[in-house]
Structure formats: C-alpha cells, structure tokens
Amino acid sequence: MLITLEGLDGSGKTTVWEALHDSHPEATFTREPTESWYGDAVNRAIDDDDADPLATLFLFTADHADHLSRTIRPALENDELVISDRYSDSRYAYQAAALSGSDLTRPMEYIRGIHSAFTREPDKTIYLEVDPETAAARSGSTNQFEDAAFLAQVESNYERLIDAEPDRFVRVDGTQSPEAVIESVEEIVDRLRAEDA
Ligand code: TYD
Description:
- By secondary structure, this protein is an alpha/beta fold.
- It has a single domain, classed as Rossmann fold (3-Layer(aba) Sandwich).
- The protein has helices spanning 13-23, 37-47, 53-77, 88-98, 107-116, 132-139, 148-164, 178-196, and strands at 2-7, 28-31, 82-85, 124-129, 169-173.
- It has a five-stranded parallel sheet with strand order 2-3-1-4-5, sandwiched between helices.
- Bound molecules: thymidine-5'-diphosphate.
- The site of thymidine-5'-diphosphate (TYD) has 15 residues, from helix 4.
- Thymidine-5'-diphosphate binds at residues 9, 14, 32-33, 46, 60, 86, 90-91, 94-95, 139, 143, 145-146.
C-alpha cells in the first residue's frame, strides 16, 4: 500500500513523516525530491530563481521516474507499506502554479498527462491543511516556492485535486499542535492498514 503525505511548505509533513518512522517501523519511508543525483539536480533548480519552470518540471518528473523504478515499485511488489513525503500531487499542485503564466493552456492537465503514462497512483494521500500565510511564515520563504501568493495558487490546485478524487484524500488540520497532527496522522495510517488487511 502506498500512502503519500502532501501539503504546502511548512504544513508539518516532514515532522509527521519522521514521527511515523517510530510508530510504523515496518514501513518503507521515502520522499521526493529523492536523495539520488536526480534529486540533487532538482534541488539545484529549486534554489535557482531563474530556473526555467518547464525544465524544472522535467527534472522533478525524471526524479519521480527513478524513484518509482528504484524504490516505490520494488517495495510495493514486496507487499510493503510505503510512506512518501511528497509525490506526484506536488507536481500537479506546485508545477501547475509555476507554469500558470506559460504558453501551456492547461498546465495541470498537461503535467497529469505526462505522469499518467508511467506513474503509480497513491492508494491514499494525507493532505495537511494550512493556509498560505501560515505556510509561508513557517517555511521562512527561503526558496521560490515558499511565497504566500504562490502558495495560495498551490493551495487552490490541491483543492482541485481533492475535488476530483475525494476518496483518495484524507484531510488533516495542519494548524493544530505538532503532537495533535502526528496523532491524527498515526490514527489514519493505522485505520488504513486495518482496512487493507
Ligand atoms: P521538500 O523537500 O518537501 O520541502 P519541505 O520539506 O520544505 O516541504 O520540497 C522542496 C520544495 O520543492 C518545496 O518548496 C516543494 C517543491 N516541490 C515542487 O515544487 N514539486 C514537486 O514535485 C516536489 C516533490 C516538491
């Protein structure tokens, strides 16, 4: 079973993902951008304010292809529980926002189309909800994606994704205390595991 964690920068995903290591030690924990050289290239693009957004999309997508073949598919074939901190929805939400002023008429549909040929959809996606102002303030606005106005577009893209697939997403209020967020997510993962058994 593949569970992904999504949300704006500063939504607390990574803290939750780290806490889940203790409560679900049997799971395979992974993340995007990955720690491969593809992930290094992605991180260079994230830190370059002049990076071409279409080029950045393809770097992220290359990293995803490698992540699927090297980590995700082998673990799922082994019947493992896989928990990924960010996954394809991050592209659908962030790169669709980054490409909103480009020549592409429907960036999100375009990005989804590229992925649909080869990706593996998550079974469930836990969405940590925070407002864009909180997200920008918590993340410290250290890169091009952490600006409140940009994150407002990302948030509305996530909302579109949730509207399109309400059964795949589970919302968690990310403005609660870290302990409360962790507890909510641990309960959700336990429930999903029990339903899957
Ligand atoms: P991440 O390492 O998850 O940052 P954080 O832990 O601060 O949330 O992701 C790095 C940045 O890359 C973050 O601003 C979100 C962005 N991002 C995309 O724009 N598209 C993607 O597909 C992914 C995986 C991340």
